[in-house]
Amino acid sequence: TQGTGEDIRVMLREAGLSAPKHPGAWGALFNTIRKRGLIVPTGEYRAMRSATSHGRETKVYCRVVPADVAA
């Protein structure tokens, strides 16, 4: 599965997670997911959809399924 940090944020909000007190918390969460190796960059970029992002380009990531889950 491929997506951006924005996609993860939207998915979590739609699943019922409330917005953090500071918007930078989304970045911290996303960085933790990336540092733990749960997602890896694909080398692609995609325009963000939220109005406040003004369509800037952001990395596209691919979800990594741990070996013990994939078996």
Structure description:
By secondary structure, this protein is of the alpha+beta class. The mean pLDDT is 87. The longest helix is centred in the middle third of the chain and has 12 residues. The protein has 3 helices and 3 strands, in the order βααββα. Strands 1-3-2 form a 3-stranded antiparallel beta sheet.
Summarize the structure.
It is built from three helices and three strands; from the N terminus they run βααββα. By secondary structure, it is α+β, with helices and mostly antiparallel strands.
Secondary-structure topology with pairs:
Blueprint: E1 2-3, H1 5-14, H2 24-35, E2 39-47, E3 57-63, H3 67-70
Antiparallel strand pairs: 1-3, 2-3
Regions with little confidence, pLDDT below 50 for 5+ residues: none
Distance between the termini: 17 Å
Q: What order do the strands of the largest sheet run in, or round the barrel if closed?
A: 1-3-2
- Mean of residue pLDDT? 87
Strand content: 25-35%
Helix content: 25-40%
Largest sheet: 3 strands, antiparallel
Tags for this model:
71 residues, alpha+beta, three-stranded antiparallel sheet, 3 helices, 3 strands, 25% strand
